[in-house]
Amino acid sequence: MGAKKFTAFAVVSTMVFTLATANVYAAPGEQPPKAKKMAVLEKLSKQSKGKEKVTWNKKKGVPTFVTGKLSDKKAKTPADVKKIVEENKALFNMDSASSELSLISQEKDSLGFTMYKYQQVYQGVPVFGNELIVHTDKNGTTTSINGYYDPEVKSARLNTKATLSLAQALNKAKASVGVANVSKFDIQKGKLHVYETQKGDYRLVYVITLSTLEGKQPVYADVFVDAHNGSILHKIDKVNHAAATGTGTGVLGDTKTLNTDSYSGGYYLRDITKPMYSTGGKIETYTANYGTALPGTLLTDADNVWTDRAAVDAHYYAGKTYDFYYNKLGRNSFDNRGATLKSTVHYSRNYNNAFWNGTQMVYGDGDGSQFTSLSGALDVVAHEITHAVTERTAGLVYEYQPGALNESFSDVLGNLVENKNDPKWLLGEDVTTPGIAGDALRSMSNPNEYGQPDHMNEYQNLPNTREGDWGGVHINSGIPNKAFYNFVTTPGITKDNAGKIWYRALTQYLTSYSQFIDARNATIQAATDLFGANSLEATAVANAWASVGVGSSGNNGGSGDAYEPNDSMSAAKAMSSGTTYNGLISSATDVDWFKFTPSTSTYLSLSLTNLPADYDLYLYNSAGTLLARSEYAGTSSESIAGTIQGGATYYVKVVGYNGAMSTTKPYALKATY
C-alpha cells in the first residue's frame, strides 16, 4: 500500500467507517502540511455546497484559481481580505498573509464586485510574476482567489540587501541592450525584485525598464540585473510589434470626419471632445518627419482639410478605439484615468512596424510592398492601444504563453473595435501587402492559414529569443484566438457580450504570468459574474476553450465521460450496488460526484481502483458533512468501509490531488451495500 497523505475518521450516529492508516509526521499538536491543505479544501467544499472549483499549479503544489465560498466572514476592507486569505493560507503553503502579500490595487466594478490585487513579497521585496487577486461580491462574500504564489521562495533564504546601486544596475542594463551612450529615454526606471531563473534558483535582481528610440532600433525592454554581481539574467522585449509575423493590405483612401482643435490662424490635430478632456486628456497626433525623435511635431493645418493620410487614420482610429472602450466597456483611456492618447506617424523610413513604447503609439509608413502606412488599419491601431490597456491591468509578460495571451487579447479587442462583417475575422488586412488582395496578418477563424496553431496539439515550443518569437508570442496566440472565434460565433452569443467577458477577464482576473488555462478560467469566471454560472455564455466559453485543447467543456467534461455533468454535489449521478462506474477526471478542475440511497441499514464497501494518477475518495451525508476519506499517495487504490443507515442518501466524491487528471484512462468506482 502507498503511504497516506492524510487520514481521518468520522463517527456519526451509529455509523463507524474504517480506513487503513499510515503514519504522518508533524510537530507535536500540529497537523502536517498536506493535512492542513486538505482540511481547508474540505471546509471550502462544505461552504460551497460542492460547487467549488480549484485549478492547480502542479509544479509548486498550490492553486492558481479557486472559486467558491472561501469564508463565512464578510470582507469590506483590505484588512478583512487579508484575514480571509490567512484563513485559507494552508492551500498556498503560505506562512503569513500579512507579511507575504502587499496590496497593489483595489477596484470596485459596476457589478458591485471588488477586486483586491496583491503582490507576493519576500522580506518586503516583490517576487516577480507572482500576484494574487481576491474578489468579493456586493455583499462582501469572497468568491475567488486566483493568480500565482510561490511557496518555495522562502526556502531559498535569499540575501535581500543589494550590493549594486540602482545607478550601477541602470548602466549595466543600458549596455546590455546597446544604448549605453543614449541620453534621451522615454522611460528609465528600476526596482528590486526576487526572481526565479529558468534553472529554478532565486536571485535578487533589479528589474530595469528602458524605453528609447535613440538607438539603432527602438528599445522598450525589461532587463534583469543581478543585484549582487551585476550579471544580466534575463531580458524581456516589450516592443509589441504589429507586423512581427504577418502581412496585410493598403490604405483605403476613404474620407473621414476629424475632431481638431482650433487656434488663431489654424488647427491642431488634437481631439478635445472626449470625456477624457474633463481631466486634461486629449487625442493628439504628431509627425516624426521620417526621423526617430518622439513625439515629434504636433500636426497643424491652415484650413482644417487634412491631406496626410497616415495622420488622418492614426487620429481617427485612436478616437474610434477610445470610444469603444469608453462606451462599450466603461474604460476611460488606456489607464482608465483619462490619459492622453498620443500617436506619432512617419516614424523613420520604410519602417514596417507599429508599436506601443510604454508612453505612446508609433507608426511606420511601411515599405509599400510588405506594408503600407501602419496607421491605416483600425484593428492594428486598436491592437496596439490594447497593449497599453494590458500593461496597466494584467501586465502579461511578453514571453511564452503570457506573451501569446498578450497578443491574443490585442487581436480580440482590435477586431471587436473594427467590427467588420468579416467571416474570416482577419487582422491587419487593410495595410498588409497592398499589392495582394485579401491578404492579412492573421486569421482568427483559421489560424493555420497564416502559420499559427489552432489547437494545443499544435503548440510550438519555441526558444525565448527574437528568432524564436520570444517563445512564440505571435505564433501560439492562434490558439486563444481560435478559442475566442469559436465562442463569439456560438449561436446566441453577441459581439458586445463576448467583448465584455474577455475585457473583464483581462482586467479583473489575469496576472502577469497567466497561462492559457488561466485565461480559460478567467473568461469562464467573467462570464459567470456577468451572466450566471448556468448561462449560455459560461457554457459556451468553456466549450470554446475545450475545442482548442484547453480545459474541459461546459457539457460533459470534454472527455467522453458518460456521467458528466457531475461536477457538484447537486449534480451527483446515482449509483447502484455492485456496479462499477468508469469515469474520467479530465481536467485539473474536474470533480466527480455520485450518490446512492440504501433501502436498509447495511455494510458499505466503497472502492476506487485503476487509478492513472493520485486520486482521492470522499464520503458525505446529505447535509454535506464529511463522513470518511481515503487519501493514499500515488496510484494506490482508495477504499472506505463501514455501516450505513437505510433511507439516507450518501454522496461520493472523486478528485485528483493537486490537479491530478487523465483524459484517457478511466478510474473504476464501485459501491457494494
From TrEMBL:
CC cofactor: Zn(2+)
Coiled coil: none
GO cellular component entries: extracellular region
Domain FTP as annotated: residue spans: 100-147
Superkingdom per UniProt: Bacteria
Gene3D superfamilies associated with the record: 2.60.120.380, 3.10.170.10, 3.10.450.40, 3.10.450.490, Neutral Protease Domain 2 (1.10.390.10)
Keyword Hydrolase included in the entry's annotation: yes
Pfam families to which the protein is assigned, alphabetical: FTP (PF07504), PepSY (PF03413), Peptidase_M4 (PF01447), Peptidase_M4_C (PF02868), PPC (PF04151)
Domain Peptidase M4, first and last residues per copy: 245-391
GO biological process, any: proteolysis
Stretches assigned to the Peptidase M4 C-terminal domain: 394-550
Molecular-function GO terms, alphabetical: metal ion binding; metalloendopeptidase activity
The entry's keywords: Hydrolase, Metal-binding, Metalloprotease, Protease, Secreted, Signal, Zinc, Zymogen
Annotated family: Belongs to the peptidase M4 family.
Physiological role: Extracellular zinc metalloprotease.
Protein name as it appears in the record: Neutral metalloproteinase
UniProt source species: Thermoactinomyces sp. 27a
